[in-house]
What does this fold into?
Amino acid sequence: MRSLFHCSALILAFLVGAMPARADLDTDKAAISERLQRWAAAFNARDSAGVCDLFSRNLIATVPGALDSGRDAVCARLATLLAKPDRQLHYSPDIREIIVSGDIAVVRLFWTLAIQQGTQRHTSKEAGMDIFQRQAGGTWSIIRFLAFSIDSDRGDERSTSAPKPSFPP
It folds into this structure.
């Protein structure tokens, strides 16, 4: 009976100890998801500073048709795009998976970008993978991202041979 009690106590201690870890995991996933939603809201509002806030100082971005670039180059490219008043822009994320391990998280997602310029409307889709790192203050920031164009205007999800302009993340 005594060993049954000890075994039950160990199982209970394990379960109780595991609960906060799950709660922290759910909290981390929610925080990362919210950061991505805020990025889209900042982009759609043409808020260059808000857009750049998601990226770590040591960001490395990999997008089709361009060399890897750092935070300053990505932020400059986005600021240029957002400063063009002749276009209406709308980005929306479709988060497929968030994997968190300690202070690192990997997000698999699709971004849809709609661009309206006069009567012309173009929609593009990008598959992507963002790697987040928890920063010193607890905020999650992207340290690496990969984006791959998908030809949405044709209705298929094959990679295009001539990638459309790619906008992070």
Residues 20-150 form a domain with the Nuclear Transport Factor 2; Chain: A, fold (CATH 3.10.450.50). The first strand starts at residue 55 and ends at 62. Strands lie at 55-62, 88-101, 104-117, 120-134, 140-150.
